[in-house]
Specification:
Blueprint (H helix, E strand, L loop, with lengths): L1 E4 L2 E4 H8 L16 E3 L2 E3 L18 E4 L2 E4 H8 L1 E2 L6 E2 L5 E4 L2 E4 L11
Antiparallel strand pairs: 1-2, 3-4, 5-6, 7-8, 9-10
Length: 116
């Protein structure tokens, strides 16, 4: 197959190398019609997946925290912190304060002396 781009003609291989989409996961050219566009990048469906369980995330909700992409289930199991004071979940975009190996909402961590 040959492809025309402007006045130039390219064989299939060179056209794909110059103008094709590359997978952010493997850096290979994506020849398939199935392309996941996420996080401003292109992916093979099998390469845009949860960092922990490797579930494909194309078309599903996911969480990105600390540059790690993961499914909601793994976020809850692996990362999601629960505030030691109020026992409520600290959302992915919430500020977590660590003190004595415990997680706190910033507003829930108060000085011991100010509680008296």
């Amino acid at each position: 197959h040959y492809y025309k781009k402007g006045k130039e003609v390219f064989c299939g291989r060179h056209h794909a190398e110059l103008f094709g989409k590359r997978c952010a996961g493997c850096d290979e050219i994506i020849f398939s019609d199935q392309v996941i566009e996420a996080e401003g990048k292109n992916w093979h469906p099998e390469h845009f997946c949860c960092r922990y369980c490797e579930t494909q995330l194309g078309g599903d909700d996911y969480v990105k925290t600390r540059n790690i992409v993961m499914c909601n289930k793994c976020f809850t199991e692996q990362i999601n912190a629960v505030c030691f004071a109020c026992k409520k979940s600290i959302e992915p975009d919430g500020r977590v304060v660590k003190h004595r190996e415990k997680a706190w909402h910033q507003k829930c961590l108060t000085c011991y002396n100010s509680e008296k």
